[in-house]
Amino acid sequence: MVVALRAMEAILVAHKDDELRILVDDSFRDLLGCAFPGESRFIYYPRKKLHENSPLSRVQTYFEFAKLLRSIEYDSALDMDGTVVSARLMRLARAGRKPGPAFNKNKRRKIYTELIEMDQPTQHCFDDFTIMIDTLGLKPRSQTYYQFPPFGEMDQIAKLLGFSARADREAFFGRRIVVLHVCATKDYKQWDIGKFANLADSLIEQGLNVVVVGAGESERARIGQMFALSKHRDEMINGHNKLSLVQLITLLQHAKLYIGNDSGPMHLASASGVPLLALFGPTELVRWHPRVPQVQIVKGDAPCSPDCQPEVCLRDYQCMSSLSVEKVQTEAQRALSLIER
Question: Distance between CA atoms of 67 and 7, rounded to whole angstroms?
Fold first, then answer.
């Protein structure tokens, strides 16, 4: 969703006085509240309720949502997602013009009035959204990621991270903060957890505050494994499930460096303005590298096979496994030294 914020910004600004609605999955409600505080023109698809409630309640929820969606007749309805769900919602929308991405053309021809062509294998996903809003005569304000506005102070965040005494909080503020995120949605995107522990130890030995962030039960075990492997586990700060999205962005905005795998938090960090080291393995860089000037991509030294695919690697993901602690340490020191100049 972070990569789509510039396109949303362009739409909101261009149509500030028009009858406009942007339909988004409800899982992104907090993110959009951070990006566009006070903006009331979002409609949220109730995915969570449609999965959690009873069958009768789900039918009622969907009926109420469909009624809301069809309550306004629009000149245009643009599908920026191109999924089965978004196409189904486009069918519900009342609009004379319905452009949408040319994915699976035969399945979409009856829904869309226009098919938007794009060359996904050769372009960044940010450019997908740029091409889509071009059908509305719009362009993003910048070719880099949207940057979140500055949020609140760090005092409450320090308390949530375990610094209850004022003296401890002041000591925390007095040291440079490095944020680590050690997880990813796919195993092949994850750098070795033992190497992450060694990296954290080296940063702590340099006098840095190392905060490990994460959310959800799926990340708890991996973060716990990292702490178990660290020799400075008592000095490392565990931020798992302790911060809201606003608080996480605030922490990132006050940090000196972010280090993490290719993941959602990596893109969130990119939009927070913090310098970052993005650890990449087999993910397609051309599509998923953070579109910001303050990023350094770090990869292993062993090349992938030309026939490699992210889901099926012929060389056991050596492009990621060959990434050494020493290389990441070197890049971290370079990034920190640039910040201090």
Answer: 26
Compute CA distances 331 → 32, 108, 161, 268, whole Å.
32, 46, 27, 20
The domains of the chain, with CATH numbers, are 2-134 (3.40.50.2000), 155-340 (3.40.50.2000)
3 state DSSP class of 39: coil
Asked if the model's pLDDT at residue 54 lies above 60, the reply is: yes
CA dihedral 295, 301, 302, 307 (to 10 degrees): 30
Asked if 202 and 331 count as a contact pair (C-beta separation under 8 A), the reply is: no
Q: What is the pLDDT of residue 105?
A: 65
Cα atoms in the 13 Å half-sphere on the side-chain side of 38: 1
Q: Measured between alpha carbons, how far is 263 from 250 in angstroms, rounded to an integer?
A: 19
pLDDT in tens, 256-291: 999 999 999 999 999 999 999 999 988 888 899 999
Q: pLDDT at residue 237 above 80?
A: yes
Half-sphere exposure of 16 (CA within 13 A, CB side): 6
Length of the chain: 341
Other Cβ atoms within 10 Å of 3 Cβ, number:
21
User: Has residue 341 got a pLDDT over 60?
Assistant: no
Average pLDDT score, the chain: 92
290/65 Cα distance (integer angstroms) = 34
> What CA–CA distances, in Å, run from 116 to 41, 101, 278, 325?
25, 5, 31, 44
* Per-residue pLDDT tens over the stretch 311-336: 777 667 888 889 999 999 999 999 99
Strands 22-25, 99-101: pairing kind:
unpaired
Task: Calculate what percentage of the chain has a pLDDT beyond 90.
Answer: 77
Helix, strand, coil % over all residues of the chain, rounded to 5: 45, 15, 40
